[in-house]
């Protein structure tokens, strides 16, 4: 796809992708969710003490390239995944979606989120923070190239493990 054929992306298109992603994750439709990702996709969750750092030079809670992300999905879908048996119920709300910049076929997006997580025999945990996406315009529409989740929580221990796709 040449740069001349790439049309401007609208916030509505971006929101539609983010809302679809939230629905697929909340419904545990992880195979469909994976189809929203580019072949070189990455998923990052940095530590709270250095949220703007690079995964190359700092300890991250999650730093998955596409191969590791595919393996993560296989593991959490498995009946042997005790951390997600039974599966968490989640409800994500996304707001303040902003297109920060575009470079060629890449679109840099920021959004706020809250993900309510419900577990059997446990209390509800609200994960609150910011998403930073790098989206790629493809012939099939927008796809997720990079997904960075920056948690606003001061202390993660009370939230429990992040055994699902945040």
How would you describe what is shown here?
The protein has 166 residues and is an alpha+beta fold. Helices cover 20% and strands 41% of the residues. It is built from 3 helices and 6 strands. It has a 6-stranded mixed β-sheet with strand order 2-1-6-5-4-3. Strand 4 and strand 5 form a beta hairpin. The longest helix has 16 residues. It is globular, with a radius of gyration of 16 Å. The two termini are 31 Å apart. The N terminus is likely disordered.
Considering the chains and any ligands shown, give keywords for the structure:
single chain, 20% helix, alpha+beta, 166 residues
Brief digest:
With 166 residues, this protein is an alpha+beta fold. The protein has helices at residues 11-26, 30-34, 66-77, and strands at residues 37-46, 60-64, 89-103, 106-118, 125-138, 141-151.
Topology overview:
Blueprint (H helix, E strand, L loop, with lengths): L10 H16 L3 H5 L2 E10 L13 E5 L1 H12 L11 E15 L2 E13 L6 E14 L2 E11 L15
Parallel strand pairs: 1-6
Antiparallel strand pairs: 1-2, 3-4, 4-5, 5-6
Largest sheet, spatial ordering of strands: 2-1-6-5-4-3
What global shape is seen? globular
Q: Report the span from N to C terminus.
A: 31 Å
User: What does the main sheet amount to?
Assistant: 6 strands, mixed
